[in-house]
Amino acid sequence: MQNIDISKLTPAMQQYVGFKRQYPEAILLFRMGDFYETFYDDARTCAQVLGITLTCRNKNSDNPVPLAGLPYHAIDSYLPRLIKAGYKVAVCEQVEDPAIAKGVVKRDVVRLITPGTLTEDNLLGGAAENYLAAICFEGQGSGKSGSNMVGISWVDLSTGQFFAQMTEIRFLIDELVRISPSECLITQEREDLPPDFARQLAEVIGTVVTARPGWSFDSRQGYEELTGILRAGSLEGFGFSEPDCSIASAGVIIDYLKETQKIALDHITSLRKIKRESFLQLDQVTLRSLEIERTIREGHTAGSLLGSIDETRSAMGTRKLRHWICYPLNNLNEIHRRQGAVAELAGFDNVRDSLRSVLREVTDIERIATRISTGRAVPRDLLGLAQALRQLPVLKEVLSGCSSELLVELSGQCDNFETLTSLIESAISPEAGMSIRDGNIINTGYDPEVDRLRGLCHDGQAWLASYQKKLIEQTGLTNLKVGYNKVFGYYVELSQAQAEKAPVHFVRKQTLKNAERYITDELKQYETEALTAEQRSKELEERIFHEVRREVATYTLRLQQAAETVAEIDVLASFAYIARTRNYCQPEVHAGHDLEIKEGRHPVLDVQLGGKFVPNDVALGGRFGDVGIITGPNMSGKSTYIRQTALLVLLAHTGSFIPARSAQVGLTDRIFTRVGAADELTRGQSTFMVEMLETANIINNATDRSLVILDEVGRGTSTYDGLSLAWAITEHIAGVIKCRTLFATHYHEITELCELYDNVKNYNVAVREWKDDVVFLHKILKGRTDKSYGIHVARLAGMPQSIISRSKEILQELESNFSREAHRPQLTGKLGKKDTAGQMLLFSNQPTDPLLIKLKNMDLDNLTPMQAINLLHEIKSDLESR
Fold first, then answer.
1. Residue 310 exposure: Cα atoms within 13 Å on the Cβ side
2. DSSP letter at 500?
3. What is the pLDDT of residue 3?
4. Helices 719-732 and 687-701: crossing angle, nearest 10°?
5. Cβ atoms < 10 Å from Cβ of 463
6. CA–CA distance, 580 with 568 (Å, rounded to integer)
7. Cβ burial 710-725 (10 Å sphere, 16+ → b, else e)
8. Phi, psi of 26 (to 5 degrees)
9. How far apart are the C-alpha atoms of 171 and 273, rounded to whole Å?
10. How confident is the model at residue 545 (pLDDT cuts 50, 70, 90)?
11. Residue 617, exposed/middle/buried by CB under 10 A (0-12, 13-18, 19+)?
12. Contact 165/151 with Cβ under 8 angstroms?
């Protein structure tokens, strides 16, 4: 693009190249008449991604220009595919009427659409949040180094939700995984970033990374940007006493939105400060391992914790539920407030069911308010808003009989929008469509001029008949006719016999064989109006719609507050619904350390198995956090049990009830998990290295308030290395950290720790053996086990019978010949030496050391004293030389 000689291009193509150089990273959709055209590499990309035809301009020249276009009215179907493919799109519109343009039509880029700046439902593709994030490291751009703090901010442009946070660099990736931004802004100055940071963001977070000028990451400049957009003299009212790097990152977001959206950002009305210590912390490993938002294998919400407990009825409730699940509370009072609301709604079926019925009729107030504020709302949006606002008084009425603190508060926040609702319903036609320019969007009776122009369009024959009757009465010419044709327009027709009686104000227009046609001033005026009435009606309706939309936009802040209220009511009603229908209990969340759950069930599997899930107890209490060591067969439910416990603790901290008969949950600051097997080969990390990194993170950050879930730690290396590490790690947790821990393992030797530490307890999964078969009971019992039944699981997996039989032989020999002195299993006899030709020994008990071989072959009975002394000297010399 840089090498194109603009002087040889047409004026329109010169325009295109100029805009493309301004937005080199974006696909430029260049409006030309009824099409958006793309050229050069953009055309090739669009043809490939969108499946449209690739053609070219100047086919017969030496340098044909690749070309691909799409109809302007179909852009809504094409844009989502480009954004989903990870592209940014610059929309270049005609900003001048081609009919009155002199020379080339004026154009301008009216919007840069990026993955983090979407507002339209067809682009967002669902109710989930769509965050744009920015990151600023403390000391960035100042040459300072060594700071361990970083500022993060994130905004959902479609809702106006805006957050900022200061945190330690070691928690940065964890926080970004929890935020899950679609796009992330970072400085383009590489020296201000950790090594390979942009690639890590793309791979770990899955976000589009956008580099911004280093100078824009300035806290003072950000402070000014924010006070301007929030219309505040300072940010103290939002919790920010002075500029820091979180303010710098928030300022970068505002600057980027102004540049890309080219609109007022009036719907961004607040900046919320997030304090890490206010929430139960979930790192990226925990979010993934517990499948809180999506499943590990398919990456779908269905089958995750979020998917299994989402019984919300509105898009706003869906987003709020996700926020509550990813940011569980760490404040007892707030947890109890939510629990009180859930308990009341769970106990009153009629109130809960009425709320859910009303909530089903509530459209996405939050996103509609944004589209109205940004001037992107269509008539259907306003009608949807009016429908939603009509439900608020109903919600208030339903909640009026509730007594729990939070429900009383929410009932009082159900604002009355009667004036606004009446405005929309009186102005916008119920049959209005999605387009502003198609007409028929303003209600009949709202504007007299619109009604008159519509009458001209739709009641022309009636007017002509009325005018004809009027002329006959005035002239007495009973054969007079008023008509219309496309060539001559409107006319008054008289027969040749009556033509000489035509009044003087009849102006002859056309002579026919048997008649004369005339025009009158009144008819000419009607003709002028009638022929332009439809276009003028559409223009007037569009102008009125814009006026109504601007009036509705003045309610943006109140609408956002109403949306927040509706979302909370929706989540609480959803919690109450699953508590009631799935037989959940209210956990007693307290300030102590005890964790005791009676007949707990996995919140996901309990739904999927339809009541066939086997419940289990959990007891991790006492003065110090107990460490529960769980042994038992593969596939018996150890991993399910420990994950289940973590999920129940998490749910309890959101204020939800949990699937159990009863529960006491001591306040928890973090949930740590080390489960499953994964590698990071692109980063040079083996499965075992990832395992050790995750475990080290737990050891270095867990407190006595934490809940730790460990599954098969140490299995990625040799038996004795792994056992030693697992033993030492468990010992450290029990003796130093003293936090509530569940450790599922096949290292049965670790169960001996219960004899050394009072807070270590052994559990096992019950099985029943019958002949050559094993039945897993999935029940957790006290005590240890010394069998893993791995061969049985291999048989279930379809392993050939020859291997199963051979494995049993080897296992029997190993167990019967275990050398406790040497602490290693040995194979001897027929298992160690196969009589099949060429069969390699599994283990060999033959010595391989030359010195041992020499000793073995020595005839000691025939050695003289001198030979024995010389032999000792040789042995000593040989040992010293090693």
1. 26
2. T
3. 65
4. 10
5. 14
6. 18
7. bbbbbbbbeeeebbeb
8. -110, 155
9. 17
10. very high
11. middle
12. yes
Instruction: Kindly state the tokens that stand for 111.
Output: 């919007």
Residue with structure tokens 């959990």?
A: 618
Q: How far is CA 170 from CA 47, 147, 211, 722, in A?
A: 43, 11, 22, 27
How many whole angstroms separate alpha carbon 310 and alpha carbon 160?
Answer: 23
Q: Which two tokens stand for residue 684?
A: 């040079």
Nearest to 136 by CA among 196, 207, 189, 180: 189
Q: Which residue has the tokens 């100055």?
A: 189
Nearest to 131 by CA among 114, 148, 108: 114
CB atoms within 10 A of CB 68: 22
Integer Cα distance of 403 and 401 in angstroms: 7
Q: Sign (positive/negative) of CA torsion 495, 500, 503, 508?
A: positive
Find the DSSP H helices in 327-436.
332-347, 349-359, 365-373, 379-389, 392-399, 405-412, 418-427
Q: How many CB atoms lie within 10 A of CB 379?
A: 26
Contact yes or no for 577/311 (Cβ under 8 A) = yes
**Dist CA 49 CA 499 (whole Å):** 69
Are the beta carbons of 616 and 600 closer than 8 angstroms?
yes
Strand order, beta sheet including 481-485: 481-485, 489-495, 515-519, 507-511
Torsions phi, psi of 722, nearest 5? Answer: -65, -45
Tokens of 88: 């940014």
Q: Report the distance separating Cα 781 and Cα 27, nearest Å.
A: 62
Using the CB atoms, write b or e for 172-199: b if 16+ within 10 Å: bbbbbbbbbbbbbbbbeeeebbeeebbe
Query: 3-class SS at 753?
Result: helix
Core vs surface per residue 410-434: b (16+ CB within 10 A) or e: bbebbbebeebbebbbebbbeebee
Taking CA atoms, 565 is separated from 306, 316, 366, in Å, by: 21, 10, 11
* 370/354 Cα distance (integer angstroms): 28
Three-state DSSP at 825 gives coil
Residue 769: beta bridge partners? 774
Mean pLDDT of the chain: 87
Instruction: Using pLDDT thresholds of 50, 70 and 90, give the confidence band for residue 403.
Output: very high
* 3-state SS class at 259: helix
Q: Tell me whether residue 565 is exposed, middle or buried, using C-beta atoms within 10 angstroms of its C-beta: 0 to 12, 13 to 18, 19 or more.
A: buried
**825 pLDDT band (50/70/90 cuts)?**
very low
Could you write out the DSSP letters of every residue in 263-332?
A: S--TT----EEP-GGGB-EE-HHHHHHTTSSS-TTT--STTSHHHHH---SSHHHHHHHHHHHHS-B--H
For residue 685, pLDDT over 70 is answered with: no
> What Rg, from alpha-carbon coordinates, does the chain have?
39
Strand intervals (E) in 677-811: 707-711, 740-744, 760-770, 773-782
Q: Is residue 648 a contact partner of residue 660, using CB atoms and an 8 Å limit?
A: yes
Taking the C-alpha atoms of residue 666 and residue 593, their distance in angstroms, rounded to an integer, is 5
Q: Do the strands 131-137 and 149-156 form a parallel or antiparallel pair, or are they unpaired?
A: antiparallel
Please give the torsion angle defined by the CA atoms of residues 226, 227, 230 and 236, in that order, rounded to the nearest 10 degrees.
100
DSSP character string of 143-180: T-----EEEEEEEETTTTEEEEEEEEGGGHHHHHHHH-
- Amino acid sitting at position 267: H
* Helix and strand numbers, DSSP H then E, in the chain: 32, 27
Per residue in 259-281, pLDDT (tens digit) is 998 888 999 999 999 998 899 99
- Over range 790-807, report the average pLDDT: 78
Name the strand (E) or helix (H) holding 670.
strand 670-674
Q: In what order do the strands lie in the sheet with 149-156?
A: 208-212, 183-187, 131-137, 149-156, 161-168, 272-273
C-alpha pair distances (Å), 715 with each of 634, 635, 721? 14, 16, 9
Three-state DSSP at 33 gives coil
Taking residues 605-615, what's their average pLDDT? Answer: 90
Structure tokens at 71: 């109809």
Sort strands 183-187 and 208-212 into parallel, antiparallel or unpaired. Answer: parallel
